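Quick one: structure tokens for this chain, please?
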Amino acid sequence: MANKTFPVARPGERRPRDASRTRQHLLDVAGRHFAEHGYDGTSVRAVATEAGVAANLITRYFGGKAGLFAAATTIDLHARATLPGPPQALGDRIARGVVQRWESADTADPLLMMLRSAGTSPSAAEALAKFFATQASGPLAEHLTATLGCTPHDAADRASAVGALILGVVTSRYIMRTGPLADAGRESLTAWLGDRLQRLLDDPPSPPLTPPSGS
């Protein structure tokens, strides 16, 4: 089925615009472009052309390409919903949420777009870092401090380690698609990830991370 377009009004012609509908249409088109071409390979003009609007409308609605990317990749991981429960099963709950989410993701998944683009675009990398801080590591660190008695520093360190492990698994299985993590069955992967996450949550604090000497 052909994509709907939003023709630009002729000079002097007054045409009512459904701003919310136009904005959502732009996000739908942008999502496809970012998924297919990445951040650097997507142009504002190409998105506007496919959407059937003037390019300056993207600036008006989103402030430019970076704002469009941020809006097109906005999702909610609902991470806080997986945290309550027995502490000894927290790793398993997180693992099940991660695997369930990613096993049902498609090529246009907003988080997958961010991951693919972060390696080549500082804007995409910044958006990804803010996303994980808000949606994942931040809530987990708060939970560890409030319910498990971790110090804020230790909680942040453990949450960072959890995020790094999950990001590595996601990259291996759903982006690189090679190796034991990619070949494992769903339940096997969930059990493996849950076990390793629980170790990160239970083990004694790791040596502190510090900047290089002289920095």
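The chain is about 65% helix and 0% strand.
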